[in-house]
Amino acid sequence: MPDMLRLDPLAFLRNPRNKKTVTVPSETRYIRKVSTRILDALAGFALDEGRVFDVRLCVEEAVRNAIVHGNHSDRRLSVRVTYWIEDSKLFIEVEDEGSGYDHNALADPTTGAHITKNSGRGVYLIKKLMDRVSYNDTGNRIMMVKNLS
Predict the structure, then answer these.
(1) How far apart are CA 31 and CA 149, in angstroms?
(2) Is residue 46 part of a domain?
(3) Residue 50: its H or E element
(4) Is 1 part of a structural domain of the chain?
(5) Where are the beta strands (DSSP E) in 30-121?
């Protein structure tokens, strides 16, 4: 796999809604490049700093989780990020090649002994900062929606 972000050249043919797909290897150094690509697509929207922060944080958390937890940082595996804007909403899907997990089984990081743990806050933050979050049945793809208006 080349040492760069790969755009899916056929994505616009498969989907009439102008979805853009970025595929990256399971290396954390690509996380910021993915979030920057998505934020660049929002340049025409007058978003306040809070919304921009929410999108960046959630994209970076979702991609990090896909790389580290989903693909176990196996560089042979990829993370695919698809995003599009429709009806003043930003839609983002992050999918890894891992076996998935049950997002409902995650402990609440704001309670009890979980407060002092070093991990487990990413999914919690995503659920709090995005307007809608869902997962596929396997648990290896997250869909996030952020209202832009």
Answers:
(1) 26
(2) yes
(3) helix 49-65
(4) no
(5) 78-86, 89-95
> In this structure, is residue 49 part of a structural domain?
yes
Domain containing 133: what range?
Answer: 6-147
Quote the number of domains for the chain. Answer: 1
Q: Find the CATH number of the domain harbouring 125.
A: 3.30.565.10
Model pTM? Answer: 0.86
Q: What is the pLDDT along the chain (149 residues), one digit of tens a residue?
A: 444 455 444 444 445 458 999 999 999 999 999 999 999 999 888 899 999 999 999 999 999 999 999 999 999 999 999 999 988 899 999 999 999 988 888 777 777 777 777 777 889 999 999 999 999 999 999 999 999 98
Phi-psi region of 56 (alpha: psi -120 to 50; beta: other; left: phi over 0): alpha
